[in-house]
Design a protein that fits this description.
183 residues; alpha/beta; two-stranded parallel ribbon; 8 strands
Length: 183
Amino acid sequence: MVRHQMNQPGKSLGVMGLGGLGHMAVKFGKAFGLNVTVFSTTVSKKDEALTVLGAGGFVVSSDEQQMKDLARSLDFIIDTVPGNHPLDPYIQLLKPGGVISMVGVPDEAKFAPVNIVVGMNIIAGSAVAGTKVTTEMLEFCAAHKVYPMIEKIPIQYINEACERMLNKDVKYRFVIDVENSLE
């Protein structure tokens, strides 16, 4: 987020997808002082986004009126969705010069280039950083209490955990408790 200057207090951030990466994007956004709006395909994650994670807004992305109401209102969007999806509806939400950073990795990204050109917007990507940047991020997390929400599991539960991941039944990360699993 820092690489794309998404750490400016008072700016607005949209987070596409509320899974393992998305919930951390919300937490980082809040810690940076951003106004955070979560986008999801279903209303089922609304309470979690607003109450538990503290997002300021929630939008069901399939609701055309909700999307239209946010036109040209966001400075940044973090796209954590790993599956193929259209980007144009989200590009329309960016202010001029706004940035979409893709951290989910779909097979392809579909958008009309004219939407980027007209809005002078940027589509960027982000991958794992080097040691220095990772250390800075971890120090920021410790100072601002930005921690992932996890479910600890014994290693013997790994098959069930994989099945639950396939069924989208995990909030938000599984962590294998190796120390207590090998007794």
